[in-house]
């Protein structure tokens, strides 16, 4: 089974065909296919191809399953004995994609 390491949204992901992962928000409709061209590494069995910085001509194709927002993260800043408390919440947007193929 071949695998690849791709870079998207400032993060790196190790993917195989059939994987479902959540990446940073992509500008694509649900059901559309997207290609990731920043492939840093491709491995198939015992052979591994490492890019410098990317593997030339390698792409990873995926299908957008859905868009959404992650669970709320609560940020609390508190100073004891100073009558100071600050609360904030944040929900990160994401795109859920399913990997359909690795072209090396």
Automatic annotation (TrEMBL):
InterPro entries: bL21-like (IPR028909), bL21-like_sf (IPR036164), Ribosomal_bL21 (IPR001787), Ribosomal_bL21_CS (IPR018258). It comes from the Bacteria. GO terms for cellular component: ribosome. Keywords: Ribonucleoprotein, Ribosomal protein, RNA-binding, rRNA-binding. Part of the 50S ribosomal subunit. Contacts protein L20. Belongs to the bacterial ribosomal protein bL21 family. This protein binds to 23S rRNA in the presence of protein L20. This is Large ribosomal subunit protein bL21. It comes from Dyella jejuensis.
